[in-house]
Amino acid sequence: MTNDVVDMITVVIDGFEVSVPKGTLVIRAAEKLGIQIPRFCDHPLLDPVGACRQCLVDIEINGRAFPKPQASCTIPVEPGMIVKTQLTSPVADKAQKGVMELLLVNHPLDCPVCDKGGECPLQNQAMSNGQGETRFEGVKRTFQKPINISSQVLLDRERCVLCARCTRFSLQIASDPFITLNERGALQQVGIYENQPFESYFSGNAVQICPVGALTGASYRFRARPFDLVSTPSACEHCASGCDMRTDVRRGKTLRRLAGDDALVNEEWNCDKGRWAFKYVTAVDRLTTPLVRNEAGELVSASWPEALAAAAKGLKAAKAAVLVGGRATYEDAYGYSKFARVALGTNDIDFRSRVTSDEEREFLAARVVGTSTRYTDIDRADQVLLVGFEPEEESPIVFLRLNKQVRKRALKVTAVATKLSIGVEKLKGEFVKTSPGQEAAAIASQALTAKSVILVGERAGESAGALSAVAVLADSTGAKIAWIPRRAGERGALEAGAIGNLLPGGRPVTDAAARVDISTVWGTDSLPTHIGKSTAEIFAAVNSGEIGALLVGGVDPLDGDDSQAALAALEKAFVVSLEIAPSAVTQRADVVLPVAAITEKSGSFLNWEGRPRSFDEAVQDSHNRSDLRILSMIAQEMGASVNLATVTAAIKEIASLGKWDGARAAMNKVSATAAPSVSGDQFILTSWRRLLDLGTLQKGEENLAGTSRKTVAVISPKRAETLGVVDGDQLKISTGFGSVTLSALVEDIHDDAVWAPRNSRGSQLLVNLGVAHGAVVTVVKA
Amino acid sequence: MSEQLEPLKKNEISVNDVSYNQVETGESVGALGHAKGFWITFTKMFKKPLTVEYPEVKAPTQDRFHGRHQLNRHPDGLEKCIGCELCAWACPADAIYVEGANNTEENQMSPGERYGKVYQINYLRCVFCGLCIEACPTRALTMTQEYELADDSRAKLIFEKEDLLAPLRQGMLMPPHPMYPGMDDSNYYKGDVKEAHPSQDVN
Question: Which cofactor does it need (chain B) (predicted)?
């Protein structure tokens, strides 16, 4: 696309010549010259609409002038065009002032109570391009204010200037057309459908792009003025999309987060979770001091030297392993990776605290680490295949990018999945229905080309053979593979070697040259040569007595498929836990060390592309140390040298490692297991996590939780008929371990399968049932 | 510029290198000169003194004296402050800190949607310029003539909302309480509300 020859058109604006690509709008050509034409409805990422009429300018083409000023946001440049803005044309200036006066006729004078006050395009442009004095003496139109159009978005219709940015965003970008303009004339207003609230995962963007205070967020309502806030550029820690963000802090407390502008990644959008889930840092009781378990078996406060000594002693005394968790920053993960090898002398480290497989680990080493499939590859793809990946729920910005291409050029999206999801429906995708666990066969039958992209989710690893089938398909067609995990830190941890089969930079642990590379930089004599254990194997080894100590980062033991084994292992082993708040791990730990939350430290994540997304500390002077710093201190106490006191030191050291140019680790092909046969009330369970659910990082966000989707159990029409179930009936899903009872929804799903959200209210499958995907469960009408 | 001046190094210059001159004291004023000065003192002894015996005697201030601030109330007792922070914005000394919050049905502190939840004025910083009073859109913030603001700690000189709120007068009811029945916030600003509604228990 970049190679295409672009026609340039030269126009004259206010007496200055400017050359812009064909199709550029006049308002943006003027921007290029630094001429600011006032506007409300115009947004570079939305289709032009010309709704507010604020950007009127005088236009003349080849000597023929338009009889009246024209909206510069709807007219593309043409050869021989001469534009006069408000700066040179008294007619345009008068027209703009007139439009502004009319917009203000019904606009209430409630700037003092309006959240937008101080950063309001209407306030600013009324000052720069308005009359200054009002001539209006009548009674202003009033509406009841404010009304909740969802639990997190409030609408104040009096303030609306009917620019239609919010409705266009919802329709064109998010494909969630839940708001629209109702009525006509002075009574025209933004509204929601009856019985249908504005429950979009992207509703926060409508709040951000509203040029007046008509749409405001419930959680930021009346909390601050722009001059109170200290803004820090940051990156989103919620998923692997890697959104650029801005964090606004008032007196050490995050008050809001806004989507940043990164054309290569999130454009100007983000999802509601990224925007509104930030209270988990302050809503919970944070750990403030180190804790050490005393002889009586109680966790008591201890000094740092005492706790570090206890941690070092315990980790030295027995064979130890490391569990990192998927939320660590790239630098922290690198610290864990180095700590495991240098201080503990083991490759028993795994960042995957979820349902995993060895096939997945080999796939990551062979196909993912060091590669860089980009968002732009989606832009150029002729077809996108989704495998074990539900973009809207698991990586919303990938969904927006897919949706953009679907709308723009009807990109073909194919989803190999067990259930048709709302997201895939919105993408007008082809739904290749499979039984849970039988994805491999469906993948193998896909026809792709070298221009196609395969987006593989972390759940693909839960079905045996699926990832092998993806590798075969990519080899035979030349299609690009992108692995999109759910958590923000997983790709970084993979690159940092926080996994048993890889050293930093994707170097296989079994490769002698790779080990020499690393030990030279680390200054060690040798590195462990065996392939390390995975998370499940580590827990099993603790329970069998092979491993005696665990170093645990931000891990929830209930995220895996055998949570009982995990909890038993944490009870049994000597556990050093690095955490921000009390958790199931800290309860069972022997030494607990408090660490800095994301807002309190700097660092970076690698998003699914492998692109670094760095962020600064938003809250200054928290005195909390990063994982990296603490690991260095424990290592020093143990007599080993990790020596990574700062993020900068870690970045430097990672850079000095350079790229691995040796052979990649090989991948053993795994074949799918035969589908279990089900009959009567037996079903095969399938599930995924929803964007808004009971995730740890969404604690304390009632407004956000209010827009989460309904917890339902989904079965196919055929099975519903045999069970005698209709929508809304209660279904009881049970295993030998436990059961959940959910409201039934009859939808397009494989006849053998029952779907339920993995971690939503009333449906925490891994905790309630002990399984999440591919297992046979019993479903009965409750 | 053709040449740049070399900056002086620290040890290149000393106090002794700087030239100085003796200040000339002039000639003695003489006896007549002394008498002239003391005469002014003598004449003042027969005039009425301008000073007062503070703190026993306290002279009234001018009407527009800029003294301690006050957060006013509507006639029914609801607070006028809406927590808009315009005072804090206007303040050249950064002496005011405000946090707004939502009025709810159970907790109606001021008419309308918003009230000032936290309101602090730091009198160690305040320069009594009155720009905050000019900025206030609801006339919630005014200045009193109280000037005795000395205290013995820094913390005591940060006045909280309770310290600044005007006392409840006749007909007022301590918020939170609902707005006057049938009236909305614009009625309050127009002055239609004269007192708390009889149904609201005023003692």
Answer: [4Fe-4S] cluster
Q: Kindly tell me if the per-residue pLDDT of A276 is higher than 50.
A: yes
Looking at residues A181-188, what average pLDDT do you find?
Answer: 89
Q: Please report, for residues A210, A490, A552, A566, B17, the alpha-carbon distance to residue A340 in angstroms, rounded to integers and kept in the order given.
A: 49, 17, 11, 20, 66
| Closest by Cα among A286, A618, A617 to A629 | A617
Phi, psi dihedrals of residue A720, rounded to the nearest 5°: -60, -40
| Two tokens, residue B41 | 């003192």
Q: How many CB atoms lie within 10 A of CB A540?
A: 17
Q: Do B89 and A222 touch (CB under 8 A)?
A: no
Q: Is B118 on the interface with A (CB under 8 A)?
A: no
Alpha-carbon dihedral angle through residues B43, B45, B50, B55, given to the nearest 10 degrees? 160
What count of residues does chain A have? Answer: 782
User: Looking at this predicted complex, what is its ipTM?
Assistant: 0.86
Which two three-digit tokens encode residue B87? Answer: 């005072």
pLDDT of amino acid A659: 87
Q: Name the token pair of B82.
A: 């809406």
pLDDT attached to residue A311: 97
Q: Are strands B96-102 and A763-764 parallel, antiparallel or unpaired?
A: unpaired
- Helices marked H in A451-592 — which ranges? 466-477, 490-495, 512-522, 535-544, 563-572, 584-588
Shortest Cα–Cα distance, A228 to chain B (Å): 9
In order of start, what are the domains of chain B with their CATH numbers?
Answer: 69-200 (3.30.70.3270)
User: What tokens does A246 get?
Assistant: 């801005």
* CB atoms closer than 10 angstroms to residue A450: 10
Does A523 lie at the interface with B, CB-CB under 8 angstroms? no
Type of residue at A643: N
Q: How many CB atoms lie within 10 A of CB A396?
A: 26
All residues at 6 or more sequence positions from B157 whose CB lies less than 8 Å from its CB, including other chains: B122, B123, B124, B149, B151
- Spatial contact of A218 and A151, defined as CB atoms under 8 Å apart: yes
For B85-127, the pLDDT digits (tens) are: 999 999 999 999 999 999 999 999 999 999 999 999 999 999 9
* Residues with Cβ within 8 Å of residue B42, at least 6 apart in sequence: none
List phi, psi (to 5°) of B157.
Answer: -90, 5
Q: What is the Cα–Cα distance from A393 to A458, expressed in whole angstroms?
A: 13
Distance in angstroms (rounded) separating the CA atoms of residues B96 and B88? 5
Q: Which band of pLDDT confidence, cut at 50, 70 and 90, is reported for residue B3? A: low
How is the beta sheet containing B96-102 ordered, strand by strand?
B96-102, B114-122, B158-159
CA distance A640 to B146: 67
What is the distance between the alpha carbons of residues A154 and A192, in angstroms, rounded to a whole number?
A: 12
Tokens of B81: 């402050």
A-interface mutation test, from B79, B89, B132, B190, most A Cβ less than 10 A away: B89
A175 Rama sector, left if φ>0, alpha if ψ -120 to 50, beta otherwise: left
